[in-house]
């Protein structure tokens, strides 16, 4: 167990590295050459132009020469706070604004709890405990003195801890309720204030049955004409167009080369660029580049038109799914929420996601296949969470020297070389684990994709959930109980239901110092690393040096991506878990978490405003998950406290805790039924109100139809110029 | 452990008592005096008249003198089988027909399983087992020789049991799937073939918000006018009318007396009946009875009209709930399946149950209260299932002699009397438990009512679920593991997750003889008791002797009630559980269950046709529960077999079983999403089809409105004559 001095040293190191990151950030961000990395969002919004066009000399375009700007290296914090929440919603989207609220929620929950816990529990724990008297000199500086470990077994003081757990749970639930209420009403307001957009009128229909003699388009048309008379407007089919997608990709590459050559020609008008016609331009006849690419593109366009017509006509490339649009939001709301067909596996309807949010590949998965996929992935996830260490250990055993020598005897001379030997032995065994942890989010995302969800937002939420389970077992439990997850699973199966929380609970106070260090490294320094954006910076500069040829390439290179929900949400939820578990046990941990929440709030507010560009808008659809996981943390905390107290022989006080998980679960049930429909359904009242508003501003059916007709066209068809697309707009309803 | 001879004796006794019951039934049912008890359904359907009017002399009216009818005492069985299923649906309702299918399903599942199990497992178990060789003479007639206990530990024969468990599970799932499919399509066909009825057009709206300055009726009207334009037709408010209900009750009593006196006068036209005006007609002025009751009824009618008007006007007696009717089934289907308001706790809509099925008292429970009630009842149910023995033990301890003497010293002389003493000591301690078990279904029904469900059918289903949990813990587990449920709970909490199925599994083969006896007593003899209807018979004859005055009283006295779903469904499911648990362990139990299913099928088919009169029609809404419980039984059976095998040290074969519960659960998930919507939702396709049919047969809106206007009037308002009710039909939509 670490002494307070140890923690002090660790804190110092972490604060120093944090400061180093921040100073580096402050220096790098004001260099014009990095402008596109640190202010990406503004470039995308079109509100900031390249500093190269702003004058200041050749050097001034690359390095900042204004000394004054170097002095205020923390001035990004007030800048980040200037924007109001509604401005953030307008600027960076609702998801980002709600994401920031999670950090605020952390402050709101743990702020008052920390104050009360420090004022009440620390004196209770510190005064007259076992450790205090028995070993005053030995461990007087141990932070265990401030934790529940310091209280004598069978003490009546445990009533204080129990009542504090009650108090803290009630406070947390109160804040959760208020926040859920606020987010739900914000979401409804946001949806209500949204301008007319295709997803309000559109429903995604899957599992369209195959009726012989009819095309999918015909069946969709006649089914909805019949069952939603007076409401059905039009629909858009879904195509499987792998070959076409390849052509589109090829065309964009050719276009890029053409742009590059034209740019080159503009800069040196005296010399037309040329290239050879052979493989990679290495041999063959030398031709004029611009003419060559123009001709190639023309040829490709012809091919694409033929291919596109083939897709439209070929019944095999039409998927049994469609986006059906209605004349009013009311009609769409009704269709999305009702069952259409006698057979509930056919004609499945749900709200259409935003066009940007659609994951096209999963639209046509049959119903039975979905069930099997879900089963397969849950089994796989379970195996991944508990047994991931087995293949890694296997790889590690292969990677050790004897194994390597056996597998590849020709490597013997290198292995025998001493430097390589120590490098291999010291570095390689850890490498397999590092690589695994690095690719884990991608693996989880692939698993979610196999599960068959149809929107990117759901895919990300499911990935976040999987990642959270992994962290819960391997980071939280793995740190508290020694041994691999596999060993823990074995132990859990062979322990009684009351023994498990005891075994975990009893080690909790002992691991407080470990988690404090974890928070400082992962939370404090990690967040400072987040604002520095070292990886995107390096990648951007490398790309700029070697790949970027045209303006389009530059834009591609600076793509900031969205906030990485699948990774940030679970780690955020882990902090909530740590906070709730330790709030009644070792309250000294809370200030460290508070610092994390506050600092991360500033950093992400800055990043949301200046960097990230959300690729879709789910209107805060992840909130129910955030809420649910915090409730889960509360229950874990209560169970572990019960386990801990029962090892302290506090038999007279522990039973009082039994009621708390039941109350918490009931609260969760209530919140679920009270607020979750706001995130899943679209009330008819709202739809009618918006429809009435629309009628006032007079938008006719025909206008609406043309507005909706190709909103849900597959993006690869959009990629081609607009002129050619007129031919693609099929599936318009016939005149009645 | 009982020998086969023991079981033979027990079987003989039970078969004899079964035969005695059947002969008693055969004798009693052909006596004209009992006709109304054994053919109630036909009286209610109006297809059978009192045998008294059929001639045959005075004695012939009471006792059957036709000797021929005595000879064929089993001829009710072919009679019961004559009706086809569709005739049963028309005669006794869909619920009854589906209820009978559960018994058939039992035969379909366990019939082939029994054949295979007896042919394959019995030889495997019997040959060369431990018991066979080691103790040939001692237990050679023990039925354990035929069970899995006879197989040597670590034997490879366990692979046979495991593959049989797989085979049986697949067969059971296949039958379950086919049956679910059949019942679901039968249900849809039944609903589609139903004539126009109010619940097709009506939606129950609860939690209507209070808007100041508006009555509930006004808010409902304007809300649905706005959000379901063109579809809304009319609505019917819900009133709280306790005082009115009392008046209605009083009036029906007076009417009965009037009828009685008029009947008396008709029989003796020379003497007008008289009565005294005082209390119970014991003193006071003697008046003409017919005039007296006529006057009383007239007075009461006036009071009732005033009271009714008061109810209609008083905003306090109008509940925040309403039955809203739509112009088409499509409109109602849309409203029932969508969310209406931004606040998901307001304007809650669901399909209106049949008017007969409504449980009026629960229509106005606020949303928050529902959550709290559910929590309270689940805690209570948990306590009831596991701790019910505690208060009973307390009562028993009070009821013993010393306790009684202390509480009531004046009883000492009686207690000291020897006969009374032995009676008290022998009988009273068991009495408390008996009384508890007798009133248990009523207690569970009251608990379900407190939970706040709005239809009788749901109330009965919830009660059945509660009763099943009670039986699962106290009958099934309680018989296998020794000790009270409370002790079991304690043991479970202190055992590991893998130890629990081991501890239960290991005792399963040992309890086979007990359960065989249980099946014979509760199943065979119990069902024979069911057909005898001894209790209703006695009660009917007693009522007829002492209470019945008029024809109306007679009808009341013969009321056969519905099939007692809350008791029959759980016990039926218990038989499925026994069958699945023992099918791979002690297959000799299966024939006993098969006999139960077959016999019970005949008996209930007879009862459904001749006796029971369903008070509502839920169109088989209980099927998903039946399906779910059988799946649950399969999983319990797999887990227990795993536990059992692991005690047999079959470490090489047991892991093969782990996959089975996962597959079974996935199958359940699939069935749930495939079929359950047919029981919960009403597809728009169906609604449209029926609407189109209706249009063809031309039913105008006005006609429909008058048809629906008082379909959902509170039944007590219906009780009063139709003439007066014209004034009560308020809440008609105003002319537009």
Automatic annotation (TrEMBL), chains A, B:
It is a multi-pass membrane protein. One of its GO terms (molecular function) is calcium-activated cation channel activity. The chain crosses the membrane at residues 6-28, 109-135, 155-177, 375-394, 427-446, 467-486, 574-605. Residues 373-645 form the CSC1/OSCA1-like 7TM region domain. Residues 200-362 form the CSC1/OSCA1-like cytosolic domain. Belongs to the CSC1 (TC 1.A.17) family. This is CSC1/OSCA1-like 7TM region domain-containing protein. It comes from Erythranthe guttata (Yellow monkey flower).
């Amino acid at each position: 167990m670490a002494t307070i001095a140890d923690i002090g040293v660790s804190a110092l190191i972490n604060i120093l590295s944090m400061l180093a990151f921040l100073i580096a950030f402050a220096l790098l961000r004001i260099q014009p050459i990095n402008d596109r990395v640190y202010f990406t969002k503004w470039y995308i919004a079109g509100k900031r132009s390249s500093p190269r066009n702003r004058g200041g000399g050749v050097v001034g375009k690359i390095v900042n020469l204004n000394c004054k700007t170097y002095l205020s290296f923390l001035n990004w914090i007030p800048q980040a706070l200037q924007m109001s929440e509604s401005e953030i919603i307008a600027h960076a989207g609702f998801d980002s604004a709600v994401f920031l609220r999670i950090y605020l929620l952390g402050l709101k929950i743990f702020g008052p709890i920390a104050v009360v816990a420090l004022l009440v529990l620390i004196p209770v724990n510190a005064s007259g405990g076992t450790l205090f008297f028995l070993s005053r000199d030995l461990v007087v500086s141990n932070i265990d003195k401030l934790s529940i470990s310091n209280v004598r077994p069978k003490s009546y003081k445990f009533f204080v801890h129990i009542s504090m757990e009650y108090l803290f749970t009630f406070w947390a639930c109160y804040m959760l309720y208020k926040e859920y209420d606020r987010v739900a009403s914000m979401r409804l307001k946001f949806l209500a204030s949204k301008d007319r957009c295709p997803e309000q009128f559109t429903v995604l229909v899957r599992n369209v049955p195959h009726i012989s003699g009819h095309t999918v388009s015909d069946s969709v048309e006649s089914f909805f004409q019949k069952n939603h008379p007076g409401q059905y407007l039009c629909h858009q089919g879904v195509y499987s167009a792998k070959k076409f997608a390849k052509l589109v990709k090829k065309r964009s590459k050719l276009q890029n080369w053409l742009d590059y050559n034209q740019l080159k020609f503009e800069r040196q008008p005296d010399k037309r660029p040329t290239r050879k016609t052979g493989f990679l331009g290495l041999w063959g006849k030398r031709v004029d580049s611009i003419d060559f690419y123009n001709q190639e593109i023309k040829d490709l366009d012809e091919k694409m038109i033929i291919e596109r017509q083939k897709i439209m006509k070929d019944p095999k490339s039409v998927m049994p799914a469609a986006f059906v649009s209605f004349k009013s939001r009311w009609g769409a709301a009704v269709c999305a929420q009702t069952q259409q067909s006698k057979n509930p596996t056919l004609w499945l309807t749900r709200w259409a996601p935003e066009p940007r949010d659609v994951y096209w590949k999963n639209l046509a998965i049959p119903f039975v296949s979905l069930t099997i996929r879900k089963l397969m992935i849950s089994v796989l996830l379970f195996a991944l969470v508990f047994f991931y260490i087995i293949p890694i250990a296997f790889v590690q055993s292969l990677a050790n020297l004897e194994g390597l020598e056996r597998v590849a005897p020709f490597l013997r001379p290198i292995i025998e070389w001493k430097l390589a030997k120590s490098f291999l032995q010291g570095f390689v065994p850890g490498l397999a684990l590092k690589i695994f942890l690095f690719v884990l989010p991608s693996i989880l995302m692939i698993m979610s994709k196999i599960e068959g969800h149809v929107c990117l937002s759901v895919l990300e939420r499911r990935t976040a959930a999987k990642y959270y389970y992994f962290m819960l077992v391997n980071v939280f439990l793995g740190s508290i109980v020694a041994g691999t997850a596999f060993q823990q699973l074995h132990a859990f199966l062979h322990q009684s239901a009351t023994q498990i929380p005891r075994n975990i609970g009893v080690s909790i106070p002992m691991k407080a110092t470990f988690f404090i260090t974890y928070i400082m490294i992962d939370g404090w320094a990690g967040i400072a690393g987040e604002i520095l954006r070292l990886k995107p910076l390096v990648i951007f500069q490398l790309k700029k040096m070697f790949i970027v040829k045209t303006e389009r390439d530059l834009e591609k290179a600076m793509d900031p991506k969205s906030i990485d929900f699948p990774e940030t949400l679970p780690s955020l939820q882990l902090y909530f878990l740590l906070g709730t578990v330790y709030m009644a046990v070792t309250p000294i941990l809370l200030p460290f978490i508070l610092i994390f929440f506050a600092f991360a709030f500033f950093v992400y507010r800055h990043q949301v405003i200046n960097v990230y560009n959300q690729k879709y808008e789910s209107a805060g659809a992840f909130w129910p998950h955030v809420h649910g996981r915090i409730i889960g943390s509360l229950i874990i905390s209560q169970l572990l406290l019960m386990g801990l107290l029962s090892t302290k022989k506090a038999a007279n006080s522990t039973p009082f805790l039994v009621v708390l998980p039941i109350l918490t679960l009931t609260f969760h049930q209530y919140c679920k039924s009270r607020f979750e429909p706001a995130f899943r359904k679209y009330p008819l009242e709202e739809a009618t109100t918006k429809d009435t508003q629309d009628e006032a501003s007079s938008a006719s059916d025909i206008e609406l139809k043309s507005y909706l007709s190709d909103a849900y066209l597959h993006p690869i068809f959009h990629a081609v110029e607009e002129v050619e697309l007129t031919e693609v707009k099929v599936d318009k309803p016939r005149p009645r």
